[in-house]
Amino acid sequence: MSDALGYTDAIVLGIVEGLTEFLPVSSTGHLTVTEGLLGLKVDDPAVTAFTAIIQFGAIVATFLYFRQDFLRLAKAWGRGLLRHLYGRQLRRKGNPAMAEMVLRDDPDYRFSWCVLVGAVPVIVVALIFKDLITGPLRNLWVVAFALIGWCAVIYLGEARGTQKVDEDQLTIRQALLIGLAQCASLVPGVSRSGSTIAAGMMMGVTRVAATRLSFFLAIPVLTGAGVSQLGEIDTSVVGWGPLFVGTLVSFVVAYASIAWLLKFVSSHPITAFIPYRIFAGFAVIALLLTNTIEAT
Fold this sequence. Notes:
By secondary structure, this protein is mostly helical. It has one domain. The chain has 15 helices and no strands. Helix 5 crosses helix 7, helix 7 runs parallel beside helix 11 and helix 11 packs antiparallel against helix 12.
């Protein structure tokens, strides 16, 4: 059993979560390394649960930052469902021209479905392989090699990206493929945003549109991860006070990170993060080889 996780640990982990959740550098990887440096047992279920639950802070930050977008998309989704029901009724009544007008394409309605469909694959895979993800994969050797190895995918995403498809042109098929790519982020060190942005750019999606989709996909994914870990909280290891503080700190830092990243990707390639990922990966290897931290 690991030592009790205190307020200082909670603040440090909250800062790391908020800083790295939306950057293509892997928040899970950084949290796992930080846990090791703090002397926590990285494969302890209570510690794993703590790092999953403080992600709620990042979720709330995303909701607040994109609140107008979420409201617009929710309204478009509701209107779209009603429109489709009415359009089908018109077709059955032999009025195809009116049905076609009612069923005209609405980019917001389509994008709302893109978010929902894109979130499904990673949720399904996470449920199927939960024991693997929270067990053997919670290993710092995995984090180190994933940080370095996934750089190749990020490079290909930027190199092959035509950036011709904007947010209002995104298709359900593209969103599903991006969602499938997001499954790779279940491996600590890969990065959820790094996988979704790179996959989107490989399909011609603009960097900013792929980044915004990554933010929206975070909501169901992080919510599911947090809820699934609620039952793993062990108050002898993680008290409710540190859990609240860690979540609050992650919210504040994540909100600032969202604004910075959107501005950054509008004028910089995501390959800008590759040198840091490689440095971080080799730094973890050095810490492991010198027995400064334990792999699990």
